[in-house]
Structure formats: C-alpha cells, structure tokens
Amino acid sequence: MIEIDQIDIKYFRSIYRLQLKGLRDVVVLAGVNDIGKSNVLKALNLFFNSEAGWREPLRFDRDFSRRRLQEVRKETIKGKQFIQVAIRFVRGKRFEKSLPERFTVTRTWHRYSTEAVTTSSLTRQHKRGEVATSIDRAQAGLQRFLDSIRFEYIPAIKDSDFFTYMLGRLQDLLIAKNAEESAVVAAVDQLNTTLQREAAGLQSEFEAAVGVPTSVRLPEKIDQLFRAFTVATRKGDEDFPLSVRGDGIRSRFLPSLLYHISKHSKRHYIWGFEEPENSIEHRLCTALAREMVTTYSKEAQVLVTSHSPAFFGLRDRNVCVYRVLHDTEGTCAICVHPEAAASAGTHTNLLNVEMGLMELQEEQQRQYEQVAEELEAARRATETVLDMLQTTTSPVLLVEGKLDAAILQEAWRRLFSPAAQPYRIIPCGDDVQGGADTLKSSLETVRPDQPLTVGLFDHDKQGYEHGFSQLNRAFAELPHGATRVKTNGAAAAVVLQAPRGREDFATHKTLTIEFMFADRYLLAPKDGRKVRLAPLAITQVIEATGERIRRGDATEPHLVSLCKEDKGWFAYTVVPSLPTEAFQPFGAIFDLIQNAFDEAKKRREAASPTLA
Q: For residue 433, what pLDDT is reported?
C-alpha cells in the first residue's frame, strides 16, 4: 500500500532539517510532548492541502523555523527564508508508462509568496534515461498522480467541528459514488413530485395574491440536501447521535470512518493521525493498533504520532517506528524499528526512559496481548462447547480435558456396563492442561432451553480456586460444598472428591483425576514404563516487593503432579489395562454427578415447567 518512502522537511516550525526514509505502510512517531512529532504530519498537510494544520493556513512569521530565521538575519539574505517539503513517492502499478518507479516532488514556500513552488526530479531522471516517455507526458502523469492522492490530517484534539467535517467527507463519498445510478437520486425526484402536489394549494394562493409563481422543491444538488447528515449509535434499546457519545466512542469511530472512505474512494489515501489513543481505553487502543497494521494499512498509508505502547511497541514487517527528539538544530528522528542503524538499540532504551519506564510498559503490553489471546482462545472454545450442546437433547457432563473424558468413559464402562450411560461426556480442553476456564465460562452461559449440563472440575488450584469456586452468583452452593447449581436449573458444577487416602491432595488443591486411582494402580509399571511424579516447587513471597523466590522442591507425598509427558500415556494405555477394582473410587464421583443432575432438573422444573 506504501505511497511515500521518504520525507525531507526544511525550516518548518521546530524542524530545521529532518529526513525520514525507508517508510512502510504504518509509520509511528514516538517521543515526549512538545518535541515536534505533530509538525511532521502538519508538514505533510501543508504539502498536500496547503494548510499548516486542520483548517489552519500557513503563516510564515509563525511557521518558519526560529533557528533558521536567526541564521538568515545574520546573513542578511532575505531570499533564504523558505519552508520546504520534499516527498519521494513510490509509483506502484499506476502510471507505469509515464512515471519512474520512484520520484521526488518538492514544494517550497517563500516568505513573500502566497503560492508554493512545485518542482520534481523528473527532468533529472529523464536525462538519466529513467523515464520511459517524453518529459511533457511524464509531467502530465505526475499531475494526475498527485491529484489521485488524498491526505487526511487528523489532529490530536478532535472537536465537534472536526467530526462534522469527517461526516461531510463520508456524505460526499456516499452521494458521489455512482450518483447517476443511485437510488438516492430517484428517491429525491419522487419526493420532489410529492412536495409539488402537497404544496399546490399554497403555490396557487400565493401566485393569486402577488402574481409571482412559486415552486417548493428540495435543493437541486443532493449534497446540499444532506448537510444535516448524522450518525446514530445504539446503546441498549435506544439510539443516540454520535455527537452526544463520549470522546472515546467518537474517537474510535474516526479510523473506522476513514477506512470506509479510503476503501470505497477512487483516490489513494494517506492518513496523518495524531495520537489515535486519545480518550480510548487500553483494550480498544491495542485493537486499533492491530487493525491499523493488519487491515487499515491495506487501504491507506498510515502515519501516527503516539505515546501508547500499543503503537510504539509494534514490531511488524510493514511498520517502522521512530524516536522523535530534539538535537542542536531542532526536531529530529531516529529509526528504532527496523533496527537499521547501529545505535537503534541505544535509542530504543533512551525512548524507554523518555516515555516513563517504557520498557516495562512494552512488557506489560506483550503480557496484555498474550492474556487477550488466551481469553479469545477460551471464548472460541466456549462457543465450540455451546455448539455441541445445541446438537444433543440428552444431558451433558462437561469435563476439563480430553484425558479426563477418556478416564471417565472407561470408569463408567467398568462400573456400570451394560447399563446405558445417561449423559454424554464432552471435554472443554484439547491439551493436558485441561480447560478449567473454558468449563467455567461454558457453565455460566448454558441457557435453560439447552440440555441439562453438569461440569466436573479437578480439585487442584486451577480447577477449584479459578473454576469451581469462582462461578458467578447465579450458582448457589449446596450444603455439602461439593456442588453448585444454577438458580434456573440450566447447569450445575461438581468438584472431584478425594477417595480414602487422598484427603491431603484435596486439602492442598493438588487432586487431579489420575489421583482417584490408588498408588498401586497409578504407579504400577506397564511394558517397562511407569508414570513419573514431579514435586511441586516451594516458593516464598517477599512481602515488601511481592517478589517470589524459589526455595526448592516439596517432599510431601501430596504435593506432586503427574509429569505432563506421561498424562496421555496413562489415560490411553494404562487405564484401560487396569483391573475393575481400581475404578471403585469413581462410584462416589458418579453418584455426586447424578445428584447434581437431579438437583438441576428439579430447579429447572420449578423455574420453567414447560422446559422440564
């Protein structure tokens, strides 16, 4: 999507000389306040739109570099007072017959001139044989190329006037797009006919009174008709104009609006976006940064100034990140990604310090993104489980993982065969880690019109403390403490209960389904191999700092877990080979599960007899 790969600015505001090169689809300018980041975007706005800011005309006495002014006064050479912006464009697949692959356009504003002087590199490139056509044709192609580009400058402070302007841009796009074929045009013509008919009496009366004929009509130009163009947003059951929503909602609407305009316009867009994170919470800011990289940059080259690690922490291939700072001349910029310069690492560290422990912020940002990805994976897993519930009418037992399901299926077969299994067993997790989080969220979202559902949690730290005990308030705990049932009877949850000899496992939250088997079965060799038990680590928390220090491995027999590598082998190979008496502790678990189904069914019947 790239349009610009190099920018050179001279003598504009805080910029004495500044060069950005090797630009990519997304360009991030990061640095402290009042360093001149926005002046880069304003210089581009001056180049494309002849404005030093949004609706802010160039004022040479204000916008000319103070440092350069001092030099000029010393030299007493008036002709050296100018502002200059040079842009090297990448042609892309347009104008291949008239323009070289890369070329530079320079615009210069002199102190006593009202118009910019525009020059280009085409003449030099033509002499070097880099232009495959005549210079006149190349110049004509250049003008068409520049006319095809639209630069949108979005200031840091986005007031009501700016939102009105942007909605006007959307309006112009919607109306101008295939206007001659638009249903809007036909509808306006029909409405005009209706107005003429309804107002016929008024028109006749007025003409009879003063002798002047009248005609009640809508504006002839459709764009005039829609000057009251608004956007309504939904909140609950009510509609609210975007103009009355909070700054965060309005600010987040802007990039979506720009993307829509860029995608459907015949022109090629470049965005100059100041501080897109303003008024947006971190979650939306992170999502916006990813959208700019993965989606928006396909329709527009995006240049942003930012203080947020969601943006200056980006390290994608189509992104470049600059540290903007002051040197002895004025605003300058150092590329920190990609790390082309040997000093890039140093400048990254300096940027960390400038932005206030930015390194920590970037680490927190990565952790946030990791947690967000995990939550998204859990959400998808929950949707999969709920989809499964839709495909059956029989009761369902949800368990944390596939290995739990395999062991329970075998236990049922051994204890109750040939009796029919009264419920389906569905796992919530795909790996040996299980899916306590998915199990919890699945139970909380089961509806009364879905099959009766019971969830079985392991009695370990993840299953009990983060799953079973954290079920929302809709789940009421039964007196014995091992079962929770949803008030409407849609679902229930039970937690593994320790068999005789394993009580310490439950007390210390280390009881997983494998420890339902006695040691003589759990640790019995098979084919020269047996499961390995890994001791849990003993850690100490330093109260003053919250730091965790490892003190060694536990020696107590109940502070162990099965090695992850052995879990699958035990469930699929060892368990089916065990004698039937090894499964006796599961009888109490199946009784607990059945009682939970019975209690849920009773509450469902009480809450909604028609669903019973």
A: 46
Is the pLDDT score of 359 beyond 70? no
Superfamily designation of domain 4-159+249-356: P-loop containing nucleotide triphosphate hydrolases (3.40.50.300)
Listed by start position, the domains of the chain span 4-159+249-356, 164-248, 386-611
The least confident of 124-133, 212-221, 327-336 is 212-221
On average, the pLDDT of the chain sits at: 83
The closest alpha carbon to 446, from 422, 429, 426, belongs to 426
d(CA 90, CA 5): 7
Cis peptide before 395 (omega within 30 of 0): no
Query: Residue 281: pLDDT above 90?
Result: no
What average pLDDT score do residues 497-512 get? 93
Question: Which residues, at least 6 apart from 287, have a Cβ–Cβ distance to it below 8 Å?
Answer: none
CA distances from 492 to 323, 376, 475, 486, 488 (A): 55, 24, 7, 6, 10
Question: What is d(CA 127, CA 121) in angstroms, rounded to the nearest whole number?
Answer: 10
Query: Residue 242: which pLDDT band, with cuts at 50, 70 and 90?
Result: very low
Cα-to-chain-centroid distance, residue 481: 41
**β pairing state of 424-429 and 331-337:** unpaired
From the list 490, 497, 466, 481, the residue with the least C-alpha distance to 602 is 490
Question: Residue 244 above 50 pLDDT?
Answer: no
Q: What is the pLDDT of residue 389?
A: 65
Beta pairing class for 149-154 and 268-274: parallel
- pLDDT tens per residue, range 399-446: 998 999 999 999 999 998 767 788 989 898 765 444 888 899 889 988
Q: Return the amino acid letter for 31.
A: G
Contact 458, 439 (CB under 8 A): no
Provide the CB-side half-sphere exposure for 419 (13 A, CA).
8
Maximum pairwise Cα distance, the chain:
113
Cα separation, 262 vs 252, in Å, equals 16
Q: What sign results for the dihedral spanned by CA atoms 284, 289, 290, 296?
A: positive
Find where tokens 């992104």 sit: 319
What single letter denotes the amino acid at residue 116?
A: A
Coil/strand/helix, residue 606: helix
Query: Do the Cβ atoms of 447 and 491 come closer than 8 Å?
Result: no
Distance CA 105, CA 110 (A): 17
DSSP string, 357-405: SHHHHHHHHHHHHHHHHHHHHHHHHHHHHHHHHHT--S-EEEEEEHHHH
Average pLDDT on 259-276 reads 92
Q: Are strands 560-562 and 453-457 parallel, antiparallel or unpaired?
A: unpaired
> Is the confidence at residue 298, as pLDDT, over 60?
yes
- What per-residue confidence (pLDDT) applies to 22? 93
The alpha carbon dihedral of 592, 594, 597, 599 has a sign of negative
Both tokens assigned to 4: 């610009």
Helix (H, G, I), strand (E, B) or coil at 438: helix
User: pLDDT tens, 306-322?
Assistant: 988 889 889 999 999 99
Band of residue 610 on the pLDDT scale cut at 50, 70, 90? low
Q: Is 480 helix (H, G, I), strand (E, B) or coil?
A: coil
Structure tokens at 513: 């389904």
What distance in Å separates the CA atoms of residue 54 and residue 166, rounded to the nearest whole number?
12
Show the CA angle centred on residue 331, arms to residues 272 and 29, nearest 5°: 35
